[in-house]
Amino acid sequence: MVKPLKLSLLLILLLFPGMAWALETVRVVVLPFEINAREGREYLQENLPEVIASYLKQEGAEIVAVGEKTDTARQTLVTDIPGIRRFGRERNAEQVIWGSLTRVGERISIDAKMVSAVEDTEPMLFFTEGRGVENLSVMVKKLVGDISLRLFKRETVARIEVVGNERIEEDAIKRNIRTREGEALVPGTLSEDLKRVYNMGYFDDIKIKSEDEPQGKAIIFEVKEKPTIRRVRITGNRIFDDTDVSEALSIKRGSILNMYMVKSNIKRIESMYKEKNYHNVKVDYNVLSLEKNQADLEFVVEEGGKVRIKEIKFIGNQAYSESDLKKVMKTSEKGFWSWITSSGELSSENLKQDASLLTSFYHNSGYVDAKVGSPEIVYEGDWIYITIKIDEGSRYKVGDVSARGDLILPEEDLMASLNIRKETYYSREVVRGDVLRLTDIYSDEGYAYADIAPLIQKDDQSLLVNIIYEINQGEQVRFERINISGNTKTRDKVIRRQLTVNEDGLYSGRKLKRSITNLHRLDYFEDVKVNTLKGSGEDKMILDLEVTEKPTGTFSFGGGYSSTENVFIMGSIAQRNLFGRGQTLMLRGELGSQTTRYTLSFTEPWLFDIPLSAGFDLYNWDRDYDTYDRESVGGAVRFGYPVFDYTRAYLSYRFDVSEIEDITEDASRDVKELKGENTTSSVLATLRYDSRDRVFNPTRGGLHEISLEYAGLGGDIGFTKVIGEVGQYFPLFWDTVGRLRGRGGYVTKSSGMLLPDYEKFYLGGIDTIRGYGWRDIALFDEDGAEIGGEKFVQFNAEYIFPLIEKAGMVGVVFYDAGNVYAHSDTVDFGDLRQSVGGGIRWYSPMGPIRIEYGYRLDPIEGDSKGGKWEFAMGSAF
């Protein structure tokens, strides 16, 4: 691609034979100019000739030094033309230039003369003028251009023409050409123009021709455009489909065929394969020329085999074996199950992290001076060999641990909160955690900018590390102002009442984190951004909260399936942030094979602007039980108030009128006694602790609850019911979660009143004991009829692990146990009904979905053997 350019440069000289002399130099001497100006006279007198000489040198002249006593020479020779010629000949110059600059106000004029030092000719006169000193450079350049035309006998460019271009516009080409119509024709500039047009990347060849015209020379740029790519094909690819490869390419259909771009795209394709460990990949290209200056471009891929890690070797490790160190790394050697686990695949990012992980492993195990070198990678055929050099150094134990500086608590109290004192060997990670722990202690007392630095003192003789926590508490900081932005709907007070920090209150890191958690738990916002800025003083802080609201009003119509209800459909209209006040209003209807329910609910979370929640529920509920039907109409009024952290107390009153009908023959006597209308008037008191990080698929936190319901404030239903529940989620290894849950309760009938079967306890189903059907775990009366129990216990243990984390899908393995008992029975943990199983939970766009299978461990007489699938979809749970 370079040959056409060199050839074209040669053509310039061949096509312009009259310019061959331009390669010869002309020796010129420039005398000082006479300056007629009040300001800058000395500066201009010295520098103007230098600037003129510099421009002439760029045009190809050889500048001759003037020599000493130039002022005297100029003054005596300025009107003596023979003397000026003699002055030039003495310095072996061919031409002599001199003149004057005159400034009147803003107007500047330059007069120049040039006389031959070797010929007896009349001086040539030159003149230029302009306004303002800032235009002086332009004026001088024009003057030198006029002088160059006479000095080098150059011709003027009459016109510039571009031929041969079809796709590239002529104006786009001319913008890259410095030669201009009406100016002198300079071969040096023309050769630069050739390079500039070629560097546009659109042409295979460029030629410059000239034609004589009355006004000068016509310059013609004759170009040959590169072909346009009609189609890009990829062949030989199996690992990536054509679409994947095409999206990675910068060359597209309609692009100019540029070999530099082709080679760059070859590297892109190879990089794609190498990221997938196909390090032996080779990519070539073919160009098929077509008519109308078009071409097809084909990338030919030879993928080769996948290269995997054969061996990871360590050099210098003594304290830990290779197997111990490999467990720390993300990178691993190829194993038997590599086709499933992807073991042996090389990721440069993971390998970089491995070096840091190994370093941290040593530093956290007492090897304070340990160094891990950059992994060395060797490719041999289809295998990769990795070598990592390690300098372990000595192992240090924990020595004295102390604190000094600003201590807000006695030193022994601060030291009691540190974990490093419990360690035998020094651990950088434990020390870092202790710094954060101390920082939290100080931040909770308002010291937002407390500086806590661990000073590590090594004793190389005894191999001990003494740690001194240097504490500079700074000033106590108060919140000067809390700014809230982004809430176009939610009122400020709805947000502020969730904050546990307040204006003019002391800074507290713990309270600030809790405030953000409270805002997230509202579920009104997609995002909550927190920014803390320094206020008007060192002891002031400005808290900026920027929220991004999300829709809180919903209209839904859909359905689902559950083991209890089979198919059901539901519809609801809800607003969880009514008028931006945080109130909740919901109208919901549900129609299933067993249940028809309509509910209207309203909740005010902050009645009288205090954290007292209040609300009401109105419902109409038809329920088909195995041996009877129940139709209920009722309502409830409820109140709630926070009593401790994450803990609320609730009190509600419920009034319910139920019609019992369609009683079957095999129903119990208790059920038959309920035939007709039954009225329940009850009060329910509940204490609930809920610290879960989210409602569905929590990863940490607890849900503990105890409730007491008393019925008998009128009506014919009377009982006392107590239910307790303890549940805890806790994170385990590899982003897995454990859950333990226990429930229990009892109910007793009030004297002279009825205890309906539907207020007794049954177990079985997806939310109690899986593997058993809904209400499968029950008691039987003396007639053999199924009845509920007055007592129950229930235990659930779950191990939850991520499947598709971004989609909110997790897997679960569980163990369930529980049973129900009569009032006179003693709870026997040896006769619990048990099941084990597993399943999948997905927080899908349609709502939560659960698919779980429970297997009965100890079926008793009358139980079906094996297990049972549990399925729930939609909002049924």
TrEMBL record:
PROSITE patterns: POTRA (PS51779). Pfam families: Omp85, POTRA. It is found in: Membrane. Residues 155-226, 227-304, 307-393, 477-550 form the POTRA domain. One of its GO terms (biological process) is membrane assembly. Signal peptide: none annotated. HAMAP family: OM_assembly_BamA (MF_01430). PANTHER family: SORTING AND ASSEMBLY MACHINERY SAMM50 PROTEIN FAMILY MEMBER (PTHR12815), TRANSLOCATION AND ASSEMBLY MODULE SUBUNIT TAMA (PTHR12815:SF47). This is Outer membrane protein assembly factor BamA. It comes from Desulfococcus multivorans DSM 2059.
